[in-house]
Amino acid sequence: MTEWFASHDGIEQMFLLCALLGGTILILRLILTIAGIDGQDGDADAHASSEHGFQILTIHGISSFFAMFGVAGYTLYHNASLGMLIALAGAVVAGVAAVWIVQRIFLGMLRERSSGTVGLAEAVGSEGSVYLTVSKDGGRVQINFANRLREFEAVSADGAPIPTGTAIRVQSVSANTLVVAPIAR
After folding, report:
1. Which residues 6+ apart lie within 8 Å of 145 measured at CB?
2. What is the value of pTM for the model shown?
3. 50 and 93 both lie in a single domain
4. Residue that is last in its domain, among 85, 112, 139
5. Which domain holds residue 27?
6. With contact defined as beta carbons under 8 Å apart, do 145 and 126 qualify?
């Protein structure tokens, strides 16, 4: 292997080293990501930490640039026998294209990501029933919220007691407590 590597001139060796280093890091990151131990929680390289979802100066961006820079540069210089400047220019274009493609992939993945949490404010307008008598001091209601029957602390909107079993509608949310009013049926 060393003889084969030594048989190349300096520019070819540079392209091969870039391809080997960038490709190795990309493959290791892929394996770690699949295994679920990629360190994205609070990592400085976390793509989700960016306002735009992706930063070019990340391990993924840099390694994809070097991998494609090396492969394209070696191919253009060694196999296509193009000059050094054309091979370098083609390698830079290929590296930038790789970074752009990786950016598009991560932005697409971020659009598909969901935290799964539903804000309590989204319960406004939901209907349910009183579970434990609700008054100005509190009580409990059950509402069908986020496709589940859930129980919440609640207070009466007008302060009047609302007895158990009464149909209610959520009027607003105040400090993690639902403000409810009876529904006339």
Report:
1. 118, 122, 123, 126, 128
2. 0.52
3. yes
4. 112
5. 2-112
6. yes
CATH number at residue 154: 2.40.50.140
Q: pLDDT of 145-155, one tens digit each?
A: 878 888 999 99
- Asked if 101 and 173 sit in the same domain, the reply is no
Residues 35, 80: one domain?
yes
Q: Position 38: which residue type? A: D
Kind and range of the H or E run holding 170: strand 167-174
Least Cα distance to 11 among 95, 69, 97 occurs for: 69
d(Cα 37, Cα 156) in Å, to the nearest integer? 48
Q: Is 46 exposed, middle or buried (0-12, 13-18, 19+ CB in 10 A)?
A: middle
CA distances from 36 to 29, 41, 94, 126, 178 (A): 10, 11, 29, 38, 38
